[in-house]
User: What shape does this take?
Amino acid sequence: MDSRTPAKKRKGSANRRSKKRRGAGRLPDLLFHACTLKYARQAKLRGELNAGKGNSVFLCADESRTWRIAHRLRHEPTVIVVDVRRAIRDGVVFSMGKNGLYLADALPFSCLISMHDGFAEQHSAGGFLVRQGEQGMELCLVACRRRSGKSWEIAKGKMEAGETPAGTAIRELQEEMGFSADIKVVEALGMVRYVFTTPKKEIRLKAMHLFLLEATPCPESFAPANDEGIVEVAWLPVSEARARVFHSSLRPVLKDLDRRFGTRNKPPRKQSRR
Assistant: This one.
């Protein structure tokens, strides 16, 4: 913002930004921008993505749709992945445009994560072990030791070569929670994606496949993988599990599970095996 802008104008701009933020509603964790490779390289050199001449940058929450838009362009198409949290932290204001698209005046390089050196997408899988408790469905969670303190999460890990997402989730549950049983998939919960930074300061986009799983016999005692930072394993009612988990990628999933099973005294229906 130009320091010479009059105070009244600055205040008006702040009001407009506030309205825009409210108009965008609940923002997704990731947004995507369709452009050409040449345009992306220019944005990297400038240190920001902007449409120029006072125009807004158009962004989409659907990556597949964004790629379809990109392929309509004449030259080499590409899609830039935008980390919305980083963008907001750096002062970006989003508004809702037409056709479900989001708008922003400009985006700093810090939030254009797919353009950073060392960027890669990492596929992983994990899940919620489930059982029928006295008060309804219960989920088994792990408590991990983090720099900010104890964090309740799900057992999860990277997919190994040749593994299916369900196979990874089953292996990770047994390894991280520390138990042995026959585990079956009750329901596939889809995939969530979020951004994290490695110890080497490289940006990764994690694509995590999630499952509801059931173990026979149902484990009552565990030997948590302390060497992986897991300090506790516990069975919790769905509503309590939802209250303990703060990871933004898992909260919508837990909200849906609480809506579906939190007040019902029945387990989820198993998938039919063909």
Summary: The mean pLDDT is 86. The chain has two domains: 7-115, 120-261. The first strand starts at residue 30 and ends at 36.
